[in-house]
Amino acid sequence: MNSVINQKYENKEYIVLDGGSTDGTFELVKSNQDKIDVFKSQKDKNLYDALNKALELATGDIIGFMHSDDYYSDENVLTDISEAFLNNDADLVCGGIKYLRDEKISRQIPSIEINMKNILLGKLPPHPAIFFKKDVIRDIGNFDDNLTIIADLDWCIRVAKKGFKTYKLKKYIYLMSIGGESTLTIKNSVKRAKEYINVALRYNILFLFSFLIKGMRKFLKIS
């Protein structure tokens, strides 16, 4: 929470959604209520349902997401994002992301442009590293919350097919703690494969094998 509050960029709207947790989130929000614009606590169907609820509440021109236990790389990230939009004819700005395990960097992904070529190659920016104009949502719609693992992939395909322009910010902006719904287990690998097939058939594109092979490499720990 402090990572957002301490950003030097002042013209921001901070929306906090809590899925009815009992881990002290409410008390933390209450202690910072003067710095939070909107707070909602209610059960969500899944992660993407929560993101969609946040999208409906957002009134700003540019939107980005942050999950609990994650944080920005420094206090200038939102300033850098704002300047990237102002100085470039872009609909989305993507930064790099670093994954942390036990507070140590275990993996990092540089900024990636959202286009069909990259998607077909299995390259996709994680959604917390993406900032986008609200007009993008007005055009292509929210996340498909019937997908529990790869709704961000489905959303990025819609972005690419519409031809929205991505600006790659050459900076690692987001630090994510390892874990979450898409973490690879046998159960989630099967669910992930089913969702890939669903999305592949939906758009009639053959990106399926790129992502399946990439996922299996991680699961089998093949370098």
Q: How is this structure best described in words?
A:
The chain is of the alpha/beta class. 39% of the residues lie in helices and 20% in strands. The chain has one domain (2-183): Spore Coat Polysaccharide Biosynthesis Protein SpsA, Chain A (Alpha-Beta Complex), CATH 3.90.550.10. It has helices at residues 2-5, 25-31, 47-57, 77-87, 116-120, 134-140, 151-162, 186-203, 208-219, and strands at 15-18, 38-41, 62-63, 71-72, 92-101, 104-109, 130-133, 166-177. Strands 3, 4, 5, 6, 7 and 8 form a six-stranded mixed beta sheet that branches. A two-stranded parallel sheet has the order 1-2. Strand 5 and strand 6 form a beta hairpin. The longest helix is centred in the last third of the chain and has 18 residues, at 186-203. Residues 219-223 have low confidence and may be disordered.
CATH architecture: Alpha-Beta Complex
Could you state the order of secondary-structure elements as H and E?
HEHEHEEHEEHEHHEHH
Biggest sheet, in brief? 6 strands, mixed
Beta content comes to: 15-25%
Mean pLDDT: 87
Calculate Rg over CA atoms: 17 Å
**Basic shape:** globular
How many helices? The count is: 9
The CATH topology turns out to be: Spore Coat Polysaccharide Biosynthesis Protein SpsA, Chain A
CATH top level assignment: Alpha Beta
Helix content: 25-40%
Task: Give the beta-strand count.
Answer: 8
Structural class: alpha/beta
Name the CATH superfamily assignment.
Answer: Spore Coat Polysaccharide Biosynthesis Protein SpsA, Chain A
* Parts with pLDDT < 50 across at least 5 consecutive residues: 219-223
Oligomeric nature of the chains: single chain
Distance between the termini: 35 Å
